[in-house]
């Protein structure tokens, strides 16, 4: 079972209590009525979908109910850290990104076992 | 024809469990879903007669009344004596949001040396003594539903669930109690 650290409950809780909330740090334009369709598309629909480190909103919906942000590696599914909503995006450039080598597949671990 | 409507408890007459963990429906209680800011906590605590807890996973209890921390500005209040919690909240005179959820919820009591095991059969929360001591409380999940769990004693737990989910709650806990009793 995946454990996720909730910054409001101050402990790791089961993934069953959480819900994913999309990308974090997406700033809503303050001049919404003035922006072009392309700019709206960029803000509303287009996401980077990176392989590796991503910053996401999560909600501890079956716990304290709070939204918070988390940095997660999309390759290893490891939660690097989580922090309260409203706090600045942390600089994690020093973290070595996960690579495909870190993924344990059946083929990689058992495939050639005799 | 009866000239008076009878209130029927959702789990009336049910019993279950094992020698290790008894599972019984809790009696009727009044309940409040409370939201309030930090500056209102003093007056609200005075109005309820117990200190609203501000630390995660904690609760306060006095004379059959319980205040459970659910979130940074959210509490569940339970009064087993049926006191008027709405009136108590209103008497505080400070800004807050209170909703009477007395009949939205019902509760199942799980007691016995293997009570924690019976609950853990369907609940992912760590129920170890160090991390979930007597008085600890948390909103979490039980199987497919959301519950609020309160540890009322060394071997005693109160499982609050929504009324329409109570047969599921009771069945799952009774099954868990039988399994740990084997
Ligand atoms: Zn939480």
TrEMBL record, chain A:
Residues 85-114 are annotated as: Disordered. Coiled coil: none annotated. NCBIfam families: soxD. This is Sarcosine oxidase subunit delta.
Automatic annotation (TrEMBL), chain B:
InterPro entries: SoxG, SoxG_het, TrmE/GcvT-like. It comes from the Bacteria. Residues 1-26 are annotated as: Disordered. It holds the Pfam family SoxG. This is Sarcosine oxidase subunit gamma. It comes from Shinella lacus.
């Amino acid at each position: 079972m995946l454990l996720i650290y909730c910054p409001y409950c101050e402990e790791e809780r089961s993934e069953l209590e959480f819900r994913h909330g999309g990308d974090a740090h997406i700033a809503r334009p303050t001049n919404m009525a003035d922006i072009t369709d392309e700019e709206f598309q960029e803000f509303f629909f287009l996401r980077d979908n990176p392989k590796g480190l991503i910053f996401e909103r999560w909600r501890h919906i079956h716990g304290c109910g709070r939204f918070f942000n988390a940095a997660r590696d999309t390759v290893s599914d490891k939660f690097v850290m989580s922090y309260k909503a409203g706090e600045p995006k942390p600089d994690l450039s020093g973290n070595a990104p996960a690579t495909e080598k870190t993924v344990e597949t059946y083929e990689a671990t058992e495939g050639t076992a005799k | 024809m009866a000239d008076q409507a009878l209130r029927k408890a959702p789990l009336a007459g049910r019993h279950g469990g094992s020698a290790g963990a008894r599972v019984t429906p809790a009696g009727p209680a009044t309940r409040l879903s409370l939201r309030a800011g930090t500056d209102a906590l003093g007056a609200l605590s005075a109005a309820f007669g117990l200190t609203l807890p501000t630390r995660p996973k904690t609760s306060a209890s006095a004379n059959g009344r319980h205040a459970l921390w659910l979130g940074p500005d959210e509490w569940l209040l339970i009064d087993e004596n049926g006191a008027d919690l709405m009136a108590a909240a209103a008497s505080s005179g400070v800004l807050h949001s209170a909703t009477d959820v007395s009949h939205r919820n019902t509760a199942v009591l799980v007691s016995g040396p293997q009570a924690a095991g019976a609950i853990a059969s369907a609940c992912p929360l760590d129920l170890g003594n160090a991390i979930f001591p007597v008085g600890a409380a948390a909103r979490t999940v039980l199987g497919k539903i959301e519950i609020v769990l309160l540890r009322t004693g060394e071997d005693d737990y109160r499982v609050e669930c929504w009324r329409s989910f109570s047969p599921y709650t009771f069945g799952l806990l009774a099954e868990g109690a039988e399994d740990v009793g084997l």
